[in-house]
Write a structure and sequence with these properties.
Number of strands: 0
Structural class: mainly alpha
Shape: globular
Radius of gyration: 18 Å
Order of helices and strands: HHHHHHHH
Number of helices: 8
Oligomer: single chain
Length: 259
């Protein structure tokens, strides 16, 4: 069935997001790890404070999204830079609510779950699809990035809830979220669970997985981490992201082909 993109007067363009390949999931998890360690580094090591970091990163994200929306096609460098930034901002949103305002992680997890559900409901009501293979109008792209923001905020809250409030620790939390993602993959490939539903569940779960991995690598041994620090951990993952994105930009292996 053809998408009725012109009925809303929205600008039609080439698909603005990458194809879902192994590269997509690997880079996504790397981005979420950088989001966790990067936010911690900016907040503590540079002494900018939550307000300063949130303002700076929010501004950079806004500028990056302007370039993303102005582009008429998927550009790996712009897209993944936006994902890294939105991962950091999503983390900072949760940190502001819990650390500055004292809102319990259980409450923020519930609030972000409801908020994301509302975004999906409105998106589906207006567009009749939540598929990322049809991000070909400005309005759909706006829904997409709003959903991405809430997935990061929700993932941060849920991950911290397990690792810190429930006190499962970073490594065990990473294992739990890894098992959940594997279960989603099995449910889709073996039991044929709806691809769109499986994608968004896995997308949400990769946030706390990446955050738990980042915390495990960067936190001190006294905090059940490996003690690599936020700087080294962030640099390793950023370098890996850069190599992967350059490879994709050259090979175009993740460009969605419109038939």
């Amino acid at each position: 069935m053809k998408d009725k993109d012109h009925q809303s007067g929205a600008q039609v363009m080439l698909n603005k997001v990458p194809e879902i390949t192994l590269f997509f999931w690997v880079i996504k998890i790397l981005c979420t790890t950088v989001g966790e360690t990067g936010a911690d580094f900016l907040n503590t090591k540079l002494n900018l404070g939550l307000n300063g970091v949130t303002l700076i990163m929010g501004t950079i994200l806004a500028v990056t999204l302007i370039f993303q929306f102005k582009s008429k096609k998927y550009v790996p460098g712009i897209y993944w830079f936006a994902v890294v930034l939105i991962s950091i901002v999503g983390t900072l949103i949760t940190d502001n609510l819990t650390d500055r305002l004292g809102i319990p992680l259980m409450i923020t997890t519930i609030v972000f779950t409801v908020s994301l559900s509302i975004v999906f409901a409105v998106w589906y009501k207006r567009e009749k699809t939540l598929s990322i293979h049809t991000i070909i109008t400005t309005r759909r792209e706006a829904f997409y990035w709003l959903a991405i923001l809430f997935t990061f905020a929700l993932g941060t809250a849920a991950g911290d809830l397990l690792a810190e409030t429930i006190n499962l620790g970073y490594l065990l939390s990473a294992i739990i979220f890894g098992v959940l993602i594997a279960s989603v993959a099995i449910s889709h490939f073996v039991f044929k669970v709806n691809a769109i539903l499986a994608f968004w569940i896995a997308y949400i779960l990769t946030r706390p997985l990446g955050a738990s991995i980042g915390d495990y690598l960067s936190q001190d041994l006294s905090n059940s981490g490996l003690g690599l620090g936020t700087v080294l951990t962030s640099m390793i993952f950023l370098a890996t992201i850069l190599v992967a994105v350059i490879y994709l930009a050259i090979t175009k292996k993740d460009v969605i082909r419109i038939k």
